[in-house]
Amino acid sequence: MARRRLTLAAMAVSQGMIMIDVTIVNTALPAIQRGLAMSTSSLEWVISAYALSLAALIPLGGALGDRYGRKRMFLIGMAVFTLGSVACALSPSDAALIASRALQGAGGAVMSALTLSILTTTYPPATRAGAIGIWAAFAGLGFGLGPVVGGLLLSTFSWSSVFWVNVPVGMVGFAVAALVVAESKSDPPRPLDVVGVALSALGLLAVTFGLIESSSHPWGSWRVVVPLVGGVVLLVAFALWERRTRSPMLPPQLLAARSFRTGCSVYLLAYVALQGTMFYVTLLFQNAEGWSPLRTGFSWLAMNIPFLCMAQLAGRLNQRFQGVTVITAGCLVGGVGVGVLSAVTTNIGFEVAAVGYALLGTGYGLLVPATANVAMRDVPADVAGAASGVLNASRQVGVSVGLAVLGSIGANASISAWRSQVGHLPQGVRAAASGQGAHVASAQIGSVTTAIGSVAHDAATTAFVHGYHLAVFVAACALVAAAVVAYLGLRVRPATAAGTEVRAIMVRADAA
Predict the structure, then answer these.
(1) Quick one: angle between helices 495-511 and 258-283, nearest 10?
(2) Contact at 8 Å (CB) between 17 and 77?
(3) Sign of torsion, CA 5 10 14 16?
């Protein structure tokens, strides 16, 4: 029992470290932007390179754990993640930082792929929901501590400090996991789908690159069209390959289970909304409002305290209510919270944003552990690594592609609004103002006023807020869509039927 609890602690802290790295970097974005003179598209890649690396390699990490040992691959992932953090802290340029973030994400992918599968093989079904609830609570704790820790560090040190903080945590986590986690693997081991991994990774990379480039180039530009078309072709090829190969990266018994498919879809949509919202809220408060990183970090406590409280109740809620009820309610409550945040402007006090934060935290405190539990509850042990990998990959795809989509929507709306505002500026500054659209889109109001003068301050702020409103409103719509997916996908068949469905599919597969 003691070893089981220590295993839970190791997996929970590790997942918290992965999540803290998302939010702590969000808080540091303006400082990184100034320190390395980064463009808007490069700044998005600081987030997207990490999230995309996670999304593309998580399925591989799960398959490697199933084949070579989940503990062994988890420790390798943690070592790579820690080394990647060191490389990020020492990066001298935007290109070096983006590359280091991709390395960091590769290590995080292996870790993230295996935390849930290790818990699934460690805890019996009767107590698994409570363990997953604690795991989700620690993930939320990391998500919540990120802005606070980041604000404290940035008030004294440079932006590199937000990466150095991972190093001692990674070293301690490695030692604990090495001592307490029991080794497990599939028997017989599953073959690796190298072609599937390559096609999915390259396809996601190309699509995300095209979407991010659309924030600074026209949609008809070759820098947008070529990667988008190429990425779609690669993803279609991946889907066709998965249907033909004998050892697919996505085991058919997982994709055939409605509860698992629904859980992945909800995760994807929910994290599209969350990452896009946090990206824009950070720019609004720090760049447009002029808040310090510390103040921004502490403001997130209004979201994370409700998240932690609800996640702690995950085990009880899953025993009392059906998964469809908890997940749907969480998506809708979170959607209302994001909707409130979409209405925030520089003229509205923080009280309104605090209400949005609280509702957002409550909603995600409901939906995150409930979705993980529903998706993993009936997963067979021999594909637990692959299942955990695919579920976490869906979250990271939501983060990377969602940030690209919402970033593009917001940037284009802000640039369009800025062009309209330029016509109302004095004749003498219009020529200079026409080239400031990218700065306006990323809420670099100070840079715009330095280049043009204080006469442009209000116009630049208004243009950015226009894009902010549209992007965050679309994020709210994504959560409403997640609620619909959860209701339609889970209401027909309860968990027991889903488990029977998985087992029946496995029997048919074995017979074939």
Answers:
(1) 120
(2) no
(3) positive
Among 446, 452, 368, 443, residue whose Cα is nearest residue 413:
443
Distances (CA, A) of 182 to 116, 119, 473: 14, 11, 45
Q: pTM value?
A: 0.75
Q: Are 50 and 166 in contact (CB under 8 A)?
A: no
Quick check: 63 and 332 in contact, CB under 8 A?
no
Distance of alpha carbon 384 from alpha carbon 254, whole angstroms: 10
Secondary structure, 3-state, 350-400: HHHHHHHHHHHHHHHHHHHHHHHHHHHCCCCHHHHHHHHHHHHHHHHHHHH
* E strand or H helix that includes residue 227: helix 222-244
How do residues 282-322 score in pLDDT, each as one tens digit? 888 887 888 877 787 788 788 888 887 887 776 677 778 88
- Four-point Cα dihedral 269, 275, 278, 279, nearest 10: -130
Alpha-carbon gap, residue 51 to 85, rounded angstroms: 14
Q: What does 243-311 look like in DSSP terms, one character per residue? A: HH-SS-SS-HHHHT-HHHHHHHHHHHHHHHHHHHHHHHHHHIIIIIS---HHHHHHHTHHHHHHHHHHH
Domains (range + CATH), the chain: 2-181+247-418+459-511 (1.20.1250.20)
Using alpha carbons, select from 53, 51, 60, 111 the residue that is nearest to residue 81.
111
**Phi, psi angle pair for 501, to nearest 5°:** -60, -45
Nearest-CA neighbor of 356 among 266, 465, 472? Answer: 472
pLDDT tens string 438-469: 778 777 787 788 888 788 888 888 889 999 99
Q: Is the dihedral of CA 423, 429, 433, 439 positive or negative?
A: negative
**Residue 34, both tokens:** 């100034």
**The residue to which tokens 């709306």 are assigned:** 413
The tens digit of pLDDT for each residue in 325-369 reads: 999 999 999 999 999 999 988 777 788 899 999 999 999 988 888
Whose tokens are 């992945």? That residue is 264
Three-state SS string over 98-132 comes to: HHHHHHHHHHHHHHHHHHHHHHHHHCCHHHHHHHH
Query: What is the number of alpha carbons within 13 Å of residue 233 lying toward its C-beta?
Result: 6
The residue length of the chain stands at 512
CA distance 283 to 287: 5
Return the structure tokens found at 160.
Answer: 């590199």
Q: Which helix (H) or strand (E) holds 87?
A: helix 70-89
3-state secondary structure of 54: helix
> How far is residue 202 from each of residues 54, 65, 232, 234, 298, measured CA to CA in Å?
13, 22, 10, 7, 38
Provide the 8-state DSSP code for 192: P
